Amino acid sequence: MASVLGTLVYAPCKAGFCLLGGLGSLVTLPFSTEAAGKVADASCGGSWVITPDVVRGEEPVRFVGGSRP
Question: How far is CA 47 from CA 16, 22, 25, 30, 51, in A?
Fold first, then answer.
């Protein structure tokens, strides 16, 4: 139950962050496609839901996505 309620609060915040990152990526795109991709990956990557493992503290929430290997 806690993971569902957590996701209901977390997901809209994450979506707003992703939207703003997407707009920032569009601004960056004319100057560098690589940088635009990094901005989009950072803002839209990461965790989108709160799982039971997150609630138990066994898995971290990644609000910002990591870089690609």
Answer: 14, 17, 19, 28, 9
Tens-place pLDDT, residues 19-60: 999 999 999 999 999 999 999 999 999 999 999 999 999 999
- Where along the chain do its domains lie? 2-55
Q: How many other C-beta atoms lie within 10 A of the C-beta of residue 40? A: 19
- DSSP 3-state helix, strand, coil percentages of the chain (rounded to 5)? 65, 0, 35
| pTM for this model (two decimals) | 0.83
